[in-house]
Amino acid sequence: YHRLHTKETRLSKFNQTEIKAMLGSYTKVLFVRDPFHRLIATFLQGMGISPSFSSFVQEVLDSGMHNSSVAWKPLVSLCRPCLIQYDYVVVFGFLRQELGHLLRRAGLPAGSLLPELTDSQVQWTYRWLSEQMFSELSAQQKQQLSHFYRWDLAAFPFSSSFLSE
Question: What is the pTM of this model?
Fold first, then answer.
């Protein structure tokens, strides 16, 4: 797109006609991850200063939608899947098969470019971690988190998320 090299990088800086032209000229891929797994990863990476997962979750809930960090903000507010028609939605946990498909569609040799991904091990680990972390939360925190991420849970296939139970 001809305005690609401008200093403005956010779509909101362009008018509707420019946005439509830009988005139409790219293959749009959205990578999504269970919001509860995103919270766990953020906590484990030390992005929250809380001593426990429960107090970290409370900080997230207290921050609200408008003041929340990109690390845990609901995906629908970041990626606007209702406004942008993504060509592919890649769900964390199925990376190997989905990235292989994307590379083949792009005409690239999928096998030689993909890193070794062990999705099943990652899924098992996150399932175990989720059980442990979820058990630390109060019933009210669980309900508030489900409400906080309700649009992500409705928009993406996170059927096994602890937040959708």
Answer: 0.75
